[in-house]
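FW: tagging you since you asked about this chain on Friday. Here's the raw sequence from the shared folder, copied in full. Didn't touch anything.
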Amino acid sequence: MDRYDELTAPRFSLKDVEVHEKSRLFQRHFALDLYRVSYKKFNGSTTRILDRIIFERDADAVAILPFDPVSEEVVLIEQFRPGALKDPVSPWLIEIVAGMIDEGETEIQAAVRELQEESGLSVTADDLHYINAVYPSPGGASERVTLFVGKIRADHLLDHGGLAVEEEDIRVFKLPVKKAFELCQNGRINNAAALLALQHLQINYEAIRAKFLASGQQAPQA
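HL: got it, structure written out here
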């Protein structure tokens, strides 16, 4: 272990946190939980019992960036987001495919299903490149999002996706990867999962593209 590994190694673990009480304050489509916790401090002492309210989905999520290594295009989606009503440009955000992991599903199974539901694109587990599992807002939300890049064919793309039963209204479109990278730079893409996935692809572009090309190309999408 070098000095940087030692510097970034966790100083504490779950055993250094005591949950004195947990109660559900609100339950509807989402939930709010009250945690009364205390935990170790870096100076060796312990905090007093603190009240912390956490936004809870009761499930984690996946997000997938579809990438065609032959045409060098990515597939993006646009949909209305009530959490972005104060956005100065539009509450319709440019995003990547994402959704909740159903009970009994793995992250990979959820990624395959969500990609089909929201964009009509079909992939297998072997077509998914794992990026990371991230906490978008751990100061107030428990959700963890597992990110992937998915190898796809961008021809015969549907222009609309989503499940009618969930009132999803999703515009599906494709862009050259370089244009998508530009949108990350100029702020048009401001969805966290999309930014993380696109920037990961940009940093590792040649390696991911070579990996996808070497694994063979899928049949055209239905």
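FW: The chain has a mean pLDDT of 92.
HL: agreed, and The chain has two domains: 3-56, 61-214.
FW: great, closing this out.
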